[in-house]
């Protein structure tokens, strides 16, 4: 079905027609329409126009109003102040527009006409290392942007750039060669290995090999020689390296599964995936003059990047000993994503502390011609997760918090809330809903904050039924489902002929803005804007519910119309929350 124009765009159109009829000399002036507290909308564009045409703004505004033909959308236009237009739309227009949205599976949200291909680089854990709270935001924000961009019609390629290469693997592989059973599984009978077992194997091996590396010079020498074997592609060494990658994936996937995230094998392309391109990347940069040799290293210099001493700080693509840094891998990844994946946008969901690195990498890629006006790269930089005390989140012992412990605690807290409120849920349903509410709470707390800001991880607040939390939204959705179940033979039907109560109007007008919010969220890579919109939906619904009886409304038509409003609200909440990666249980 074709997209449904929002009331805002219809009003904008009518005003633009009135403007060009009354003031042809104004050309295609923008009425500058926005939502308003005084009426449904306010148009401020005539003030700037009056300045341009050297006229009296109130007189021009009156002229424009007179030029707008009578229609069934605009109920009233009032000239106010120095020349603002306060616009009220008809109740019928609100209901008819919502009915058109309700008839469409996409709720009338248009596809982006200029959609391209975006590669999203997110959820980047390290092989043989535990995932901690610092890994949470990249995964949650990235997964939401995947869903939102795909919904607008963008072709999205997921990339999980895992840390699976580097000198530490020499130490790990050498230790495994000398202690061959360290990665064996206790089950041994072909049963599926748990993520917890895989991680404890890796942890034990990492600690033991690190202790040996630090205390035994001969082992250190053997481990360093093993790095050379790994980089040279020695078969035995690569096979053992692969065991570490596979074991780590068992663990990663168990954590992502708990986060209710779909991570697929072909999307995991780690640092090692670009090894074969590194030499060529360096050659292309050096031959084009983008990178130059400095003290044996291959470097790219920037006028605006200087160290504390005032000297330029370069991006080092290849070290003086011939080794490659992160920059060589990141630049090779850009070449691959542009050339082979045909990306028009590259989106990196990476900690804000890496902003300088990515600024230099993107600028290097632009100078080399891999990025240009047709292909852009953006870092969606995110802030730090803080504890309740406002300091970086640590355990009492000062250790980094394990991600899996955090998620388990959120599920436990949420299960207690669900159990307390549960009327007719079985124990199995309480467990399932507890996970959906707990994981939803963690994701929403992250996504409802602007990514660039730090946010406090406060589980008491996150699982609260009051305030800006996902639990509040989930309960609003479950409440609507309960009403729809109790409606019996009464069905949701739109009745444009009915007069709307103020809270019905407010809810209807806000629901109509869903498509515009999706477009803005996608264009700005700003999931917090969608979260704020959905919270407002739930808040306006709560007011409507308390002021307007649904099943006990005065007439059968009013019952149907209010059920219709309930239904569109539920579908908007369900769709919007799904785009944020959050479940909406039918019963809570």
UniProtKB/TrEMBL annotation:
It is found in: Cytoplasm. Its EC number is 6.1.1.19. This is Arginine--tRNA ligase. GO terms for molecular function: arginine-tRNA ligase activity. Belongs to the class-I aminoacyl-tRNA synthetase family. Residues 9-89 form the Arginyl tRNA synthetase N-terminal domain. A motif ('HIGH' region) lies at residues 125-135. The gene is argS. Keywords: Aminoacyl-tRNA synthetase, ATP-binding, Cytoplasm, Ligase, Nucleotide-binding, Protein biosynthesis. The keyword Protein biosynthesis applies. It catalyses: tRNA(Arg) + L-arginine + ATP = L-arginyl-tRNA(Arg) + AMP + diphosphate. Monomer.
């Amino acid at each position: 079905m074709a997209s449904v124009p929002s009331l805002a765009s219809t009003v904008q159109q009518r005003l633009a027609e009135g403007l060009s009829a009354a003031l042809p000399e104004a050309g295609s002036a923008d009425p500058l329409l926005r939502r308003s507290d005084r009426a449904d909308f306010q148009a401020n564009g005539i003030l700037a126009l009056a300045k341009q045409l050297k006229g009296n703004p109130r007189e021009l505004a009156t002229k424009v109003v007179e030029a707008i033909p009578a229609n069934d959308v605009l109920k009233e236009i009032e000239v106010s102040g120095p020349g603002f237009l306060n616009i009220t739309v008809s109740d019928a227009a609100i209901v008819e527009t919502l009915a058109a949205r309700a008839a469409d599976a996409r709720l009338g949200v248009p596809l982006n006409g200029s959609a391209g291909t975006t590669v999203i680089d997110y959820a980047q854990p390290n092989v043989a290392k535990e995932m901690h709270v610092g890994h949470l935001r990249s995964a949650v924000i990235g997964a939401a942007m995947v869903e939102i961009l795909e919904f607008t019609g963008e072709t999205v390629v997921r990339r999980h750039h895992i840390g699976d290469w580097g000198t530490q693997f020499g130490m790990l592989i050498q230790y495994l060669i000398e202690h061959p059973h360290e990665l064996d599984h206790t089950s041994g009978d072909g049963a599926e290995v748990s993520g917890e077992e895989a991680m404890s194997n890796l942890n034990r091996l990492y600690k033991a090999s690190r202790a040996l590396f630090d205390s035994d010079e001969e082992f250190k020498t053997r481990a360093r020689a093993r790095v050379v074997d790994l980089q040279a592609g020695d078969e035995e060494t690569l096979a053992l390296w692969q065991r570490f990658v596979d074991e780590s994936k068992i663990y990663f996937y168990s954590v992502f599964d708990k986060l209710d995230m779909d991570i697929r094998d072909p999307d995991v392309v780690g640092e090692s995936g670009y090894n074969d391109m590194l030499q060529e990347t360096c050659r292309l940069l050096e031959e084009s003059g983008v990178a130059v040799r400095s003290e044996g290293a291959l470097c790219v210099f920037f006028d605006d990047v200087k160290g504390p001493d005032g000297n330029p700080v370069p991006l080092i693509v290849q070290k003086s000993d011939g080794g490659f840094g992160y920059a060589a891998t990141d630049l090779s990844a850009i070449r691959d994503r542009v050339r082979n994946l045909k990306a028009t946008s590259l989106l990196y969901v990476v900690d804000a502390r890496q902003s300088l690195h990515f600024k230099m990498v993107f600028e290097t890629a632009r100078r080399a011609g891999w990025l240009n006006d047709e292909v852009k790269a953006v870092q969606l930089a995110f802030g730090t997760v803080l504890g309740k005390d406002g300091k970086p989140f640590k355990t009492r012992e000062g250790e980094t918090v394990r991600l899996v412990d955090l998620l388990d605690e959120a599920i436990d807290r949420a299960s207690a809330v669900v159990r307390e409120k549960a009327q007719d849920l079985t124990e199995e349903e309480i467990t399932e809903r507890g996970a959906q509410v707990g994981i939803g709470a963690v994701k929403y707390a992250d996504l409802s904050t602007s990514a660039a800001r730090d946010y406090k991880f406060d589980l008491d607040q996150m699982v609260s039924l009051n305030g800006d939390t996902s639990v509040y939204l989930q309960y609003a959705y479950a409440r609507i489902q309960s009403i729809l179940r109790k409606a019996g033979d009464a069905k949701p039907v739109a009745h444009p002929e009915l007069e709307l109560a103020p809270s019905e109007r407010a809810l209807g007008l806000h629901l109509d803005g869903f498509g515009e919010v999706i477009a803005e969220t996608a264009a700005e890579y700003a999931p917090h804007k969608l979260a704020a919109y959905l919270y407002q939906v739930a808040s306006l619904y709560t007011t409507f519910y308390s002021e307007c009886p649904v099943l006990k409304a005065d007439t059968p038509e009013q019952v149907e119309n209010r059920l219709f409003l309930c239904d569109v609200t539920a579908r908007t909440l369900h769709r919007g929350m799904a785009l944020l990666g959050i479940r909406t249980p039918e019963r809570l």
